Task: inverse folding
């Protein structure tokens, strides 16, 4: 019988809330040697994920979008809304300001193979595991999948 997400997911997970200061989230990531944290509301429902990638904006800054001037008008060659989102992340002070919203999630009854395929197709490093009510009950990382593969050897 194939292993399910519930069999291999990390249950002892650390979560943060949108009002958590970035410095606190950075400390948690560094101390626990993890690359992302689920962001939940007061009831435990998932709002987003804050990852190392989201935090990189703090160090790298943001490049304004390319534009051209034509007849005294500015024509952006890239979407200026993306620049505004990236700038907000670079200047953010709380997890809620920099987190990625609407993360890809999975249910605990899916197979590890289905989870691996979803992660590969969507290019994600982790999948929050939600129960039927939308509460975070675990997280599945690429490392969890590799450990499950090693256990089958």
Result:
């Amino acid at each position: 019988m194939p292993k399910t997400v519930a069999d291999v997911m990390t249950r002892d997970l650390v979560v943060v809330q949108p009002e958590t200061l970035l410095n606190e989230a950075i400390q948690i990531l560094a101390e626990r040697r993890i690359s992302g944290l689920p962001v939940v509301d007061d009831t435990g429902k998932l709002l987003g994920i804050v990852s190392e990638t989201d935090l990189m904006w703090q160090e790298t800054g943001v490049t304004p979008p390319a534009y051209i001037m034509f007849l005294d008008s500015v024509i952006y060659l890239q979407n200026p809304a993306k620049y505004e989102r990236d700038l907000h992340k670079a200047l953010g002070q709380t997890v809620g300001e920099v987190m990625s919203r609407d993360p890809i999630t999975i249910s605990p009854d899916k197979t590890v193979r289905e989870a691996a395929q979803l992660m590969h197709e969507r290019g994600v490093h982790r999948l929050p595991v939600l129960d039927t009510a939308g509460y975070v009950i675990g997280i599945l990382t690429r490392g969890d999948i590799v450990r499950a593969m090693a256990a089958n050897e």
